[in-house]
Amino acid sequence: MSRVPVFIGFIFISLVFQGIIWRIPAQIPYSRVGVISVQDKLKPDEILLEYCITDSSLNIRAITDHANTVSQQKLVPVFWSLVTKFKRSLCIADPCGFSIPGHALYAFLIHPVKHLFPGKKRMIIVPGEELFGLPFEALICSKDPFHPFSDQNFRYLVQDFEIIYHYSVSKWAEKCMVITKPDIEFLGFSPVFNRHPGLSPLPYSKKEIKSIAAMFKKKGLSSSLMCDQFSGKDCFKEVSGRGKIIHLATHYLPPSLGHNCSGYLFWGYDPNSKTGFCPQEILTQEEITNLKLNADLIVLSACSPGMIMTTAEMSYPSLSLSFFLAGARNILYTLWNVTDALANQIMVDFYRRCLSGKTYSQALREVKLNLIRKQETSLPTIWAPYVLTGQ
Fold first, then answer.
1. Which of 15, 56, 224, 371 has the most CB atoms in a 10 Å sphere around its CB?
2. Whole domain around residue 264: which residue ranges?
3. 261 in any annotated domain
């Protein structure tokens, strides 16, 4: 790491904490949901943060059960370079690259409302389109960002809070209720892809859903597994409305300049298809939105479905949002690529904690804290891509 970026980062952070970047009360174009209706639904140990970015300012609305405050900061040009460097360094496991941006972004995004944190355990974040895909869990909230990296040197935001995201304050405040009770507690899909030339097989995905189903069975809860040739797209569309928890362990095909088709791959997908149409075994965004789901949780154990892909022509919204629009109340997904074997370990641990009585956000946080404690899995590259959106 060169000395110049370190010096610039040091000056920047110093300015933030000395008050050179001001907090100014302002009229911010936030969502129109009433603050009182949000406060009525917040528990005493919860805080909701909503972000709104304009051409010149970064604005944070912080709401608790008894307080509502708006912070406005001047948006300096270095902010976006910090966001870009932070996310890129996390993806490639560069601790020297994410340490200074992680600390500086904490100063921008969290520190201005820190006075509301005492007594809070759960943070609901509405990041807005501009910050969507930023793993707030990995922001560095204490210790020296300029000291050589070690697993003992940083304290991450996830070590202080359960963190859950949402697309809008109004949708979070609605607190969607279950209309009908699904008849399958756990519905697992794993195409595995052992016989698909051109696609990496996912042997651990089958092990993953079988281990999870066994835990549900031990608790006396129903489960249904669809693997290999029984995990076609039509089958998923037919039974998905019956699952309380739907777990999809598969490949995700992102959009690219070479094609306009993206989605989740099911058994029978042919990567060598030369047709001009979307291959039959890709579950597309439009198809997801048209599903009739009654799921309390959708787990997308696939690589990068939470990313927003941008080309010169258009920006592609996250497919995770499509599941929310289809009726799912909570979605757990990844922001960047994860390995098959590690995903298996993380998912099994997550469900074990859920079945012990933890909420989804509690379970996910505990999984991450467990990974942080182990030197071989302490880097946020491993645990930060897993994020939870919903209620």
1. 371
2. 184-356
3. yes
